[in-house]
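[User] I wish I could look at a protein chain and see how it folds. I have put the entry right below:
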Amino acid sequence: MALTLHMHPLSSYCWKTLLALYENDTAFTAHVVDLADPGARAAFNKLWPIGKFPVLQDGARDRTVPESSIIIEYLALHYPGKVALVPKDASLAVEMRMRDRFYDLYVHEPMQKIVDDRLRPAGKNDPYGVEQAQARLETAYGIIDDAMATRTWATGEHFGMADCSAAPALYYANRVHPFGDEHPNVAAYLMRLEARPSFARVLREAQPYMAMFPK
């Protein structure tokens, strides 16, 4: 099989990439990397010295592609399917990329800050940083709630790359800083995402690992 995705089943950015692969039934091999294993970590760092998930290897083109958004763009270019995750229309593509970056930078990033703080050793926590992250999430929730009042998906009526970004970011964000009753459109959007067969599959496959997620 030409494509191999180096990943971990709990990684939100891996979920984002898996969504793109599952949406178009793209054939690939999933290689789960155990970073707790020194040998596996060394092999992964040799592949991508930054050591961050996910990384896609394309054996047919002898390419190694890191970063979830770039992987989705790469798949849209070389392995297109029935769902055009990146619109061909340039102006619509700009909107899709903007929404994609919004979810990565303003939902995923502060969510990850809160999660990382829970994983820190006792006495090494950053309460002020967590407060800042929570405030940023509240701002992002408000923006999303307004946008999703009249939309089905991130950029309108067509599922795309930005929704692949939104699904894991919102799922985990709601676990560490719940939307609350004041953001009903965000909650409804997440429900639509969770009902999407591609995301339902991602969640089902991640379930055996969920006990590892910090409470």
